[in-house]
Design brief:
With about 500 residues, this protein is an alpha/beta fold. It is about 35% helix and about 15% strand. The strands form two sheets. It has an eight-stranded mixed sheet with strand order 4-6-5-10-11-9-7-8, with helices on both faces. Strands 1-3-2 form a three-stranded mixed sheet, with helices on both faces. A hairpin with a 5-residue loop joins strand 10 and strand 11. Helix 5 packs parallel to helix 6, helix 7 runs antiparallel to helix 15 and helix 9 packs across helix 12. The chain is globular, with a radius of gyration of 21 Å.
Length: about 500
């Protein structure tokens, strides 16, 4: 009997179409895997009946025409995506019990491709976090452990539940969102692949907003090919989203090739920063050699404003969050706390105090401060100017190269509760944030293990709308790295 949960999406798709197994067998296998891995706390809601219903539709349709690209494939959906009739809470207490009457465009696209839903995936509250410790539902446990230790590790964030589900083999693929690295960093921490496409490739309609000029949906999966398959299904123009790109969706899977002959790989000198473990830089150097072996030429580039990216991000993102989260007031949906004898202002205050976690409150306060009349120009306006300079740096760099290679994160996964200083937590995004500020496609691919047996990722940044080169460079690394390590089951 084939171990269905060990197969990639491509192999599940091809096996289903060839009649090697039914869609219902796939759904039943994954439903059982989800139920058996509750100790990971990866899911906030399980929807086994949805996965089975979609599987039955796929089985009936097989043989009667060309099935959808994801027919028979059940997926995990990050709790940031609105799913009709199913709790969609962004990992927050303030959206307790919120069941949308509508479906996000991305999940609707996946359903049109034939995908079912295994459930909603745990995440940092409103996508604010790098460790999945800010979730109202508690932290997600990574399926990975350090060698000789049983200390619970973070799967990264904010898409921690998504990353853990793929790494543990309880979902073949998942949706994530990336505002400042929330697809790429958890992918690196758990030894899987994840890609953030060009800003505007995937509709933001029906995705609960954190920072509107940065948020972008993307896929996370076992390998590069699976990411290409999922991204094709997720992407596309959406008139309901004013930032959606009115462009055809490329056939990324068909265009996959690990042959990089004629391509130039940029190596930014500013990413050699102090305090990064030597094994991170050693893997980076190995990644350069892998890409050169694939036919690429390595060239040194400069991204001089990189040093300002993190503070710029932590002005712009909280400012936009402060505005976006103003809608959660206890009036229309979600939590309502109404003190006895209190007025409307008292209800607003009590609801937001009880509904938001500490990290969300911190970012709302920072954002409100930098948007205030006395500080708007000193902080927010200046940050937008620096953001423009960062984007210009990338534009100049891509005159000299076709793709950029860096580490994904400055460390491997750390223990839950080990990092308590907010500033130290924010540094997890140091390599990922610049591409987000510039709206560029970027991907993390597993490259190897550190000295404690934990995954490390390599990070690829592409030019606007050039996801294909990013995917191809990722495939070249994947083919040469031969990363087959999997977490040993402890749950």
């Amino acid at each position: 009997m084939t171990d269905i949960t060990g197969l990639t999406i491509a192999k599940l798709r091809d096996g289903f179409r060839a009649g090697e197994f039914s869609a219902r067998e796939i759904a039943e296998g994954y439903n059982a895997a989800v139920a058996g891995a509750r100790a990971l706390n990866a899911f906030t809601v399980e929807t086994p009946e949805d996965a089975l219903a979609c599987a039955d539709v796929a089985d009936k349709a097989r043989g009667s025409g060309e099935p959808g690209s994801l027919a028979g494939i059940p997926l995990g959906i990050k709790d940031l995506f609105a799913t009709k009739g199913v709790d969609s809470t962004a990992g927050s207490h303030i959206l307790k019990g919120f069941k949308p009457e509508y479906e996000s465009t991305v999940t609707a696209n996946l359903r049109r491709a034939g995908a079912g839903m295994l459930g909603k995936l745990n995440m940092d509250e409103f996508a604010m976090g790098s460790s999945n410790e800010t979730s109202h539902y508690g932290p997600v446990n990574s399926p990975w452990r350090r060698q000789g230790s049983n200390v619970a590790l973070t799967p990264g964030g904010s898409s921690g539940g998504s990353a853990a589900a793929v790494a543990a083999g309880i979902a073949p693929g998942v949706t994530g969102t990336d505002t400042g690295g929330s697809i790429r960093q958890p992918a690196a921490f758990t030894g899987i692949c994840g890609i953030k496409p060009t800003y505007g490739r995937c509709s933001r309609w029906g995705v609960i907003a954190f920072a509107s000029s940065l948020d972008q949906a993307g896929p996370m999966a076992k390998d590069v090919r699976d990411c290409a398959i999922l991204l094709e299904a997720m992407a596309g123009f959406d008139p309901k989203d004013s930032t959606s790109l009115d462009l055809p969706v490329p056939q990324w899977e068909n265009g996959l090739s690990g042959n990089l002959k004629g391509k130039r790989v940029g190596i930014p000198r500013e990413y050699r920063i102090d305090g990064v473990p030597p094994e991170i830089n050693a893997l980076w150097d190995q990644g350069i050699e892998w890409l050169k072996d694939g036919g690429a030429e390595a060239v040194e580039i400069s991204l001089p404003h990189t040093r300002y990216a993190l503070p710029t991000y932590y002005i712009i993102a909280p400012a936009e969050a402060s505005s976006n989260l103003a809608r959660y007031d206890g009036v229309r949906y979600g939590l309502r706390e109404a003190p006895a004898g209190g007025n409307l202002d008292a209800m607003y205050g009590a609801t937001r105090a009880a509904g938001f976690g500490e990290e969300v409150k911190r970012r709302i306060m920072i954002g409100t401060y930098v948007l205030s009349a006395g500080f708007y120009d000193a902080y927010f306006t200046k940050a937008q100017k620096v953001r423009a300079l960062i984007k210009q740096d990338f534009a100049r760099a891509f005159e000299k190269c076709d793709v950029i290679l860096t580490p994904t994160a400055p460390s491997a996964a750390f223990g839950i509760g080990e990092t308590t200083d907010p500033l130290a937590m924010y540094l997890n995004d140091v390599f990922a944030v610049p591409a987000s500020l510039a709206g560029l496609p970027a991907m993390s691919v597993p490259g190897g293990l550190d000295s404690q047996g934990l995954p490390l990722g390599l990070h690829l940044i592409g030019n606007e709308l050039d996801e294909q080169t990013v995917l191809n460079a990722g495939l070249a690394i994947e083919e040469r790295a031969g990363f087959t390590a999997r977490a040993e089951k402890w749950w």
